[in-house]
Amino acid sequence: MKKDLLCLLDLETEDFESLFEKALTLKKRHKRGIFDKNLAGKTLGLIFDKKSTRTRVAFETAMMQLGGNSIYMSTQETQISRNEPAKDTARVLSRYIDCLSMRTFDHSLVQEFAAHSTIPVINALTDFYHPCQVLSDIMTVIEKKGGYKDRKIVWVGDGNNVAASWINAAAVLDLDLVVACPEKHAVSADIIEKASAFGGRRAQFTDDPVSAVKDADVVYTDVWASMGQEGTLEEKLADFDGFQVNAELLSKARDDVMVMHCLPAHRGEEIAEEILEARNAVIWDQADNKRHMDKAILEALIQETGN
Q1: Where are the chain's structural domains?
Q2: Residue 7, Cα to own-chain centre: how many angstroms?
Q3: Between β-strands 258-261 and 218-221, what pairing exists: parallel, antiparallel or unpaired?
Q4: Sorting pLDDT into bands at 50, 70 and 90, what band is 287?
């Protein structure tokens, strides 16, 4: 049976746990020089509207290390750019490839592809959600903190697609999550409402980063202007006064607080240079874990579909 990954609300708790276990196992095996080829003969397609470093390379190396192949397609290089309907492209690609990963602006485009594909469709980032990123982030929390339960995780910054995916994860996994955003840049009410319907512990929301990070085990931030919104940064800067993750803010958290950032980082804006380079910043491990989590996602979706 085909299963897509468009949003973390698509997953059950058991799905999360299975992906974490699989990703951590694959990472350990890779470090020991054991290369699993469970997707030999399979092909991943990548349709990207947005520029990418980590997401593209993580998916391509994940597929290669599992024995498969990948085909990268910029939207401008496909017939989509000439107004071919998404449903037509989806039906054709379903005949050629075994899985499709999409990185685009409009979340409804990914949904349309999924609705008309007979292969799994993965949201590799839209303006609404970034599910694969948060799966690898929670994997990192498990790896570094021994688990995610009873760990206070605090988001500090813009209410963007990564924040939205953290809220979705909290709803399913019952995470202790606090989201601190300036009032003008909070997560949309619609996203919060959809997550709240899942009945898990409701994330807490505040516009006070200082109170938010009190006793935090993990503090997470991201750029203040997401991709495609860079022109709004100057007018946003005043709104984010006090939201920089720096030594002063982290002094309110636990002594062993772990700092996370999904990259790319704007040093001196949302995060201080010395914090980005500090020993308790696990940012580079996060980036590495994207590859191993992508392996787990690809293996699970492709093998479950049975293509």
Answers
A1: 8-130+290-305, 133-286
A2: 10
A3: parallel
A4: very high
Q: Would you state the structure tokens that stand for residue 209, as one six-digit string?
A: 């980063």
For 223-256, write each residue's pLDDT tens digit: 998 766 666 767 788 899 999 999 999 999 999 9
Whole-angstrom distance between the N-terminal and C-terminal Cα of the chain? 10
133-286, CATH topology level:
Rossmann fold (3.40.50)
Q: Which positions ≥6 away from 303 have C-beta within 8 Å?
A: 38
CA 58, CA 137: separation in Å to the nearest integer?
Answer: 14
Distances in Å between the Cα of 125 and the Cα atoms of 23, 111, 241, 296, 307 are 20, 12, 27, 17, 24
Q: What is the pTM of this model?
A: 0.95
**Both tokens assigned to 173:** 């996994």
**Rounded to an integer, what is the distance from CA 190 to the centroid of its chain?**
19
- Pairing relation of β-strands 99-103 and 176-180? unpaired
Buried/exposed 198-223: b ≥16 CB within 10 Å, e otherwise:
eebeebebebebeebbeebbbbbbbb
Distance in angstroms (rounded) separating the CA atoms of residues 140 and 50: 25
